[in-house]
Write a structure and sequence with these properties.
Elements lengths: L1 E5 L3 H13 L3 E5 L2 H10 L4 E5 L7 H10 L6 E5 L4 H9 L4 E4 L4 H15 L6 E4 L2 E4 L4 E4 L2 E2 L4 H13 L4 E2 H8 L8 H15 L4 E6 L3 E6 L11
Parallel strand pairs: 1-2, 1-3, 3-4, 4-5
Antiparallel strand pairs: 6-7, 7-8, 8-9, 10-12, 11-12
Helix pairs in contact: 2-3, 6-8
Length: 231
């Protein structure tokens, strides 16, 4: 998942970005609302984390502008303001959640997972498909009851695929989920991670099917008797 962090305090932003990257997210950081708007014009993000106390345009104005422009991406507001009317105002203008600084990273991660599940119409921290289970809260994957080892980018690709089930996942969206501004991944690199996942999933009866000209979809493979593997 690719996140946009809008925070003008360099030390705070560095700490948040490090924690989110260690949790498996791709994070791009900007220090102002104006730069955030520029980023959103050229790139796609799954969620934005927005500080209220930004220079020039504040985080509330940014959130209002995003919603007035029809952008439905989840927005989590971070702020040192703890007054009730500030929280109410933030939620009323379109923010999806509100956290007060200082905060603990585990709570931030839990709130992000909840917002991302909601935006992808998922209701549980455990994503399942046939014999495959991914526990996003505890960063564990099992296949047919056995632990499945995944690299960070394999995890990102598989999580996105599971979020999209039964729909296919667009290749360009997968690329955006993997790529931040400080990294460069070619479209062909997706094939590498897809190939690695196929090698792990195929023996358990899960196919990672390529949809020509679009992307990929997880499918259950029929057993030798012609019956689909049960979900």
């Amino acid at each position: 998942m690719r996140l946009l962090l809008v925070e003008d305090d360099v030390m705070v932003a560095s700490g948040i970005k490090l924690g989110l990257c260690n949790a498996g997210y791709t994070v791009d950081w900007v220090g102002s609302a104006e730069r955030a708007l520029q980023a959103l014009e050229s790139d796609s993000f799954d969620l934005a984390i927005v500080d209220i106390g930004l220079p020039s345009m504040d985080g509330l104005s940014l959130t209002r502008q995003l919603r007035n422009g029809g952008l439905e991406m989840p927005v989590l507001i971070l702020t040192a303001r703890d007054a009730l009317h500030d929280r109410v105002q933030g939620l009323d203008i379109g923010a999806d959640d509100y956290m007060i600084k200082p905060f603990e990273l585990p709570e931030l991660l839990a709130r992000l997972r909840a917002l991302l599940r909601r935006s992808q119409a998922a209701t549980s921290a455990v994503l399942g498909f046939g014999p495959l289970e991914m526990d996003t809260a505890h960063r564990r994957v099992t296949l047919a009851g056995q632990p499945m080892e995944l690299g960070p980018r394999e995890w990102t690709v598989l999580e996105y695929l599971l979020m999209q089930v039964p729909k296919p996942a667009a290749k360009d969206k997968l690329l955006q989920a993997l790529t931040g501004w400080d990294k460069e991944i070619t479209p062909n690199a997706i094939e590498v991670y897809v190939s690695r996942l196929r090698a792990k999933l195929d023996p358990a009866g899960i196919s990672l099917r390529a949809i020509r000209g679009f992307g990929y979809r997880l499918e259950l493979v029929a057993d030798p008797g012609g019956h689909a593997t049960p979900a």
